[in-house]
Amino acid sequence: MTTVEISPRxxxxxxxxxxKFKGEQESVILNLLEGKDAFVIMPTGGGKSMCYQLPALMSxxxxxxxxxxxxxxxxxxxxxxxxxxxxxxxxxxxxxxxxGEIARVKEDIVNGETxxxxxxxxxxxxxxxxxxxRGVKISFVAIDEAxxxxxxxxxxxxxxxxxxxxxxxxxxxxxxxxxxTATPKVQTDIQKNLGxxxxxxxxxxxxxxxxxxxxxxxxxxxxxIIQFIKGNDGKSGIIYCLSRKKVEELAETLQVxxxxxxxxxxxxxxxxxxxxxxxxxxQDIDVIVATIAFGMGIDKPDVRFVIHHDMPKSLExxxxxxxxxxxxxxxxxxxxxxxxxxLEKLEKFLQGKPIAEQEIGMQLLQEVIAxxxxxxxxxxxxxxxxxxxxxxxNGDGAQMDDNSRNPKEKYEGKEFIALLLNTVAEFKxxxxxxxxADVLVGEDSAEIKTYKAENSQYFNKGKDKDVRFWHAVTRQxxxxxxxxxxxxxxxxxxxxxxxxxxxxxxxxxxxxxEMDYSDVDDEHVVVSAKAGGxxxxxSLFKLLVDLRKKVAKSKDLPPxxxxxxxxxxxxxxxxxxxxxxxxxxxxxxxxxxxKFGAPFIELIANYVKENDIDRPSDMLVKSVVNKSGLKVxxxxxxxxxxxxEDIAVAKGKRLEDIIEEIESIVNSGTKVNINYYIDDLIxxxxxxxxxxxxxxxxxxxxxxxxxxxxxxxxxxELRLMxxxxxxxxxx
Length: 731
What we know:
By secondary structure, the chain is an alpha/beta fold. It has 34 helices and 17 strands. It is globular and about 95 Å long.
């Protein structure tokens, strides 16, 4: 590999204007310039790209950089061109280019002007590209995001596993593989696949001491996110969700609450994605709500917070995504919302995949659960996962997580640890944590029967505690080095020397009491902020019930028509004092608010003033109207006066389902006119009779209406008339 006669430090100053290297950058660069292979594990923000960009600029020929994402390539090419007088210094070659653009890229390479060529693995494996690259001078090959090679990595890409033979075809040059996240298992896998067992290993610490890690129970997550962002006004942040649907919903909710946010996911066209990325980099957008498609290679140094609305599928993903915060060494707040039910959903998605893939996926999810539920120092837990020790008392960043700042209660764990370790030994160190917990609580499962574990002396020995307790003990034994997980066998537990010594001589050992997340519900309870969040004010609720009765009497209407009780309960929780806030209450549309709302907000405002109530206005979150596809479809087709049966058939639903959806629409305060359908079904006199019943009744209950009419009308007919009644009178 021929290089320019200049030292790396001089080159750094010349090409990039910097006076000194970060961490081990200089050692990596010298190693590569000497023609040796290198494997670089360097955390996000550690300066991985400099490790191949500078030697490429110093060397004769073109360096090939294999990169997994088009957005990543564009960002890096723009950055390099920013330091050079010629755009030809760096190019990318991928599916986004037309024939003319590809010809120009190849011409610049042949002319020796291009120092860095970024390629997608799919492009590199095309025969015509291999043939072309064989005919030009290649300085070295850099494989970025090398964890994509490993099935144990968080972003496995099968085409990455084909790179080694392709590189061999192109040229006999040094290879540098780089990743921000590699557990010992992933590291071995990468080196084996690339034939780099003799490569020089450069492994920087995974510790990012400026990042603060926090996990919160997933209750009212949308509301908590809005409060957090408003408390960090004007700061840049990224929010990660697992589904595109949730990304769009959350971004819209943030926008209606006055937050400068935008959605980002792979379903958008590339032009839109590029524009959003650029706006975020230029600070025209404060907050990006995204799937994991966002952020790889977005070198924005001042991201101040990263929020996980959903826990990701692996700790590598979590580490990489949180690593996008505080790259400049400044503040970086990492908040994750955790619900065990979310992870159970992810487990179900694994079903139907090949067994080996299921096992790997399950093992990775178990690590995420362990991290979320641990009461140990989160930094210690995370670094232990990547094979690094950390002193949680004196280490750099020791107090930078929720568990360290607010230590949980401890208890004497000697007897529990001894019981667990003895059970591991009894079953020949061949099982995972779940099986061992089942043994200890006396579970009657298929696996217990398979191994005849009910005959063990330890079966049911830990019945005073539940399965989750024993999982917590297991986690703490692993992190404290008494047990280790055998990755090759998908998480079976083995005794360490320290663990064996403990069995021989049990000593006092403090364990941490862990939080029980089993009752934490996930975001299908999204308290759309409508609900305020505190306890219902019983005195105010009584006043509101009395007022409803008075208003109903004055208008000669049943009280339930004015506002239903759940709506009054919400009012007595969040104290709405203007029309805008009132329409955020469940079951109060703008029409109903205008019709009946004035005396209610007047009463609440006076009550708040007289009782000097600190109104939870920061909890009043505007929610986006439910615009589910089915509801929109129903409303549009009712406007077109289509029979309800036809609407049902078009959506593969029963008529009962459609009526239920229309009831939901009307109960939320929206007016719906289905007279055209009812008129064909029920004669005018009968309609009048049912209408008068609902007008006079104290309740809108269909069961009571059925009894009143003694079978004269079907349940569907009564429900349709109740829809007509509420729509015309209440909304």
